[in-house]
Design a protein that fits this description.
single chain, about 0% strand, disordered C terminus
Length: about 400
């Protein structure tokens, strides 16, 4: 019976992680296919200046990120009393519809709208699925529960994103997004079959979830995640043109560079989840410091094939190392509104996606070269490190007698 229960739990966790795979595909494939998307949707601009068109095409990534920023807190608030499994199923249905719309929208403007709509359930999915996974794994494993769902993102980057990127390069980016919609549909079926129902947080309410936004530490933690991860996305967004235009490699090499980054992300996510459950502060500060060094090394060496692959691995690994810690941090500072805390984390990460893509595109459009985006990334991660240090310093200044909101995740 114990083995049966264990297998059922693993199946449920796998289904939730599959949602992370699908979300990783819909979000990150755009980065590998950015030249193809830009050429297909902006043919005149691409013919005049590929770099300018790619920078403009980056708005498809920005639109998705902004959809996450808007959708995560709104959905978290209005679904506070909804059972988590039911919520996850509804969010997956929206993903299916939005991703299909992204694939078939005929113009650049409509694709932007479709990407925004497709992104609305992103943050709430990671919040609800992460809470489900943490419940299934048991007390004291909250960060590892979120790491399980985030592992879907890393798996997507190791296998799925490179494969779908290659498919998009050969069959067209629209075909790639139709395949991604099918992955969401399979995930919906798996969650419906394998994941047990878990009630909403007792006493949860829209007002209670929204009250978390009054806490200064929530905003500081969100700003930390935004700045820190914006540095990663300033690199990731322009990885394809860096591969072809800076390192001088073929477009067929892009999926393999994505594999290298994905392997780093997987290793960093697993190690980061383990350490965050033991020492949240150390995991956060050490991770940011390592990310600064890794992205700087990428900027200095990505002109060679060796430097490109190693730098992509290290940038992905150090950046995702911080992921579970940042998710756990936001839940720690919003203990009575865990869904909102988890959702705000995703809003912050995708605001980071938007910010990193936009600032990276800005320096590229100014003629500073594709690697200038990596130096922007170094500066952004440094801001994240400073904000993280300030947040933990604020914890130490908490008045005597104030309870730690989440002892299992103490930083």
């Amino acid at each position: 019976m114990d083995q049966l229960n264990r297998n059922l739990r693993l199946g449920a966790l796998g289904a939730l992680a599959m949602g992370g795979v699908a979300i990783g595909l819909t979000e990150f494939v755009a980065m590998g296919l950015l030249p193809e998307i830009s050429r297909g949707l902006l043919p005149r601009a691409y013919a005049a200046s590929p770099a300018d068109a790619v920078a403009q095409g980056g708005w498809t990534i920005t639109a998705y990120a902004l959809g996450v920023v808007v959708g995560a807190p709104v959905i978290a608030a209005v679904t506070a009393r909804m059972p988590r499994r039911k919520l996850v199923l509804g969010l997956l249905a929206v993903f299916v519809a939005g991703t299909v719309a992204s694939a078939v929208a005929p113009t650049f403007g409509l694709v932007l709208v479709a990407r925004f709509v497709a992104a609305l359930p992103h943050g709430a999915y990671f919040g609800a699925a992460g809470l489900l996974a943490a419940t299934l794994m048991g007390p004291g494993k909250q960060a590892r529960g979120y790491a399980v769902v985030l592992s879907g993102l890393t798996a997507a980057n190791i296998v799925g994103v490179p494969l779908i990127t290659r498919l998009g390069q050969t069959a067209g980016w629209r075909v790639a997004y139709l395949v991604i919609a099918a992955v969401f549909l399979i995930t919906l079926a798996a969650v419906r079959i394998l994941v047990p129902e878990v009630a909403a947080t007792p006493g949860g309410s829209p007002a209670g979830e929204l009250r978390a936004l009054r806490t200064p530490q929530v905003w500081l933690a969100a700003a930390t995640a935004t700045a820190g991860f914006a540095g990663f996305f300033a690199v990731y967004t322009y990885l394809a043109p860096i591969t072809t235009e800076v390192a001088g490699l073929s477009a067929g090499t892009v999926p393999w560079v994505l594999v290298a980054m994905g392997l780093g992300m997987a290793a960093g996510n697993a190690l980061g989840g383990w350490l965050a459950d033991r020492d949240l502060r150390r995991a956060t500060l050490a991770g940011f410091a390592a990310a600064i060094a890794a992205i700087a090394a990428f900027a200095l060496t990505a002109g060679t094939a060796e430097g490109l692959f190693l730098g992509a691995f290290l940038a992905g690994g150090t950046s995702l190392f911080v992921g579970p810690a940042l998710q756990a941090r936001l839940i720690t500072v919003a203990p009575s509104a865990q869904l909102m805390g988890a959702a705000v984390s995703q809003s912050a990460l995708n605001l980071a996606n938007s910010l990193g893509a936009a600032l990276g595109g800005l320096v590229i459009a100014r003629g500073l070269g594709y690697l200038a985006s990596a130096w922007v990334g170094v500066a952004l991660v440094a801001v994240g490190l400073a904000l993280a240090a300030a947040g933990f310093a604020g914890d130490r200044q908490r008045p005597r007698g104030t309870a730690d909101p989440a002892p299992a995740l103490r930083g």
